[in-house]
Every structure is written in C-alpha cells, then in structure tokens.
Amino acid sequence: KQAEKAVHQKKEQSKTKCRKARRRHINLVAEFNHRQRKNIWLETHIWHAKRFHMVKKWGYCLGNSPTEKSYRACYRAMTKQCLLQDLSYYCCLELKGKENELLKQLARICSIDTGLTFQEASCLSGRFEGSLNLYRADRYPEDMLGPVTFIWRPRDGSENRQLWIWVHPALKQDILKELKAIFQCSEPEEICISEPVTASVQEEKQVEVVTSLGNKRKKEDKEGEKAVPVKKIIGDGTRDPFQSYSWISRTTGVAISDRSMEILRYRLIGPLSHSILTETLKAASVQTV
C-alpha cells in the first residue's frame, strides 16, 4: 500500500531536463557536427578545448595556449618522459603512379642543392621520412612554395609506387595546383557526392530540437528505431566539400588524391617516445588468401 501511495503522489516530471539528460550522446554528436561546419575539429578537440585557448586558423579549430601554467610540465615531459602533439591539421597529398614518372616530374620542383630530394635512397625505400623545400616547376631558386615532409610506401614488387606528401594547410592550394600542373592531372577521378550533405541537414534539424528547452521527442528512423547520429567530417578546413578530391592524368597515368583529415598525425617528443610506441602498437597478423 505504501508503494502504491508513493506512485500516485509522484510529482509530474519537469519539462526542462537536467544537464545529464541534455548531454546524452545522441544530442552531443548532433551538436558537435553542427558546430564544426565552418571550422573542422580534430579528434582531440574536446581534450584541448577544456585545457587550451582555442583559435580558428586555416579552417580548423586549434589549441593556441594552455589555460594553466603548464610550461614547466611540458618541458619536463620533453626532457625526461614524452610529449605528444596533434598535427592532424597538416594536409596529406597522395600520389600514385609509376616510380620513374613520379621521380622525373618531382625533380622539377626541388633541387639537390638544398639537400636531399625525393630520390634519396633511404627515403625511396620507405624506411625513413624526408623533408625538403618545394619550388615552382623549373624555377629554382626563385618562387619557393614552402617546406614539406614526405614518405614513400615500401615497394611491393611492382613498378607502381605510392607517395604521401604532408604540407601545411596554408600552402596546400599552391602546392596542389603545382602538382596537378606538372603531372597534367586535370580530370577529376572522384567527386564528393551530396549524400553526406543530406545527412548533415538531418543532423541540423536534430540540433534545432536539442537547443530547445522543452520536451525533446525521441529521434526515430524509418524503421521506428532510435536514430543515433554519426560523427561525419565533410571535407576539411582547406577544401570545399562540393569539389573533387582526386584527379588523374591520361598522359602520365599519375593520380593525385587529397587525403586531408583521413590520416591522423601525431608527434612524440622525449626519451620515452620509442618505448611508449613499442608498448602501444602491436604487430598485426598477416593473412594471405
């Protein structure tokens, strides 16, 4: 009897939900997708946003300076332990084609007088990462484009090779334009379809419901189940989502792809960097069909 009495005397639930209910996963993801329409967030954005002053640069939202006095802690980590930096905002340009054709055209935008080139034996094997300065085709020492880093994919027995070039987002458009010119890549191979945009419009409608303080109806898909939005990054901070992101040349057979925000990049500094990587990364078992 006491239990039944308590049920009848239970107060009506408040229309304004508590903070825990408002911060459910289904609401947070939709809100995050909406907030990074203009400035893309890195995978570590939430961690940095709680501890850093954020700035909007090059189409990204990046951590500029810490909110606490952590300079001594960072210095101690670099000298005795390990410090990790998120460099995922760097843009990755992927080149695929025959090795001879790639080296022949890439030699036009760099010079051996400045140091190593794409033909360096240690880098060409794919064991080490190289860095150099790029210039406009056949214009050295004038018209410098900027510094880049690159890494070759190890040989697999065929004459086709794969090269990744990492560039700063402020230099991406100029370097991409020069690469497309020397390899004569003018025809788009892949074009972004409008499906992610449609999904984002649906997520925007969900955000409108989230921002209201009244009762929130449960989102349901066509089958009547609860629809959970998925985090989707449309393009990146340096690329229009409606433009093509891969080009191919019929004359040289070289394909250039924009892999920005598809490959994460981290930098580890400190004497314990190698030991941390050894404990973190595990070798995958190779399965042959």
Automatic annotation (TrEMBL):
The protein's name in its UniProt record: POP1 protein
PANTHER family: RIBONUCLEASES P/MRP PROTEIN SUBUNIT POP1 (PTHR22731), RIBONUCLEASES P_MRP PROTEIN SUBUNIT POP1 (PTHR22731:SF3)
A Pfam family reported for this protein in Swiss-Prot or TrEMBL: POP1_N
Domain Pop1 N-terminal: 4-97
Top-level taxon of the source organism: Eukaryota
Origin organism lineage: Eukaryota, Metazoa, Chordata, Craniata, Vertebrata
GO cellular component entries: nucleolar ribonuclease P complex; ribonuclease MRP complex
One GO process term, biological-process aspect: tRNA 5'-leader removal
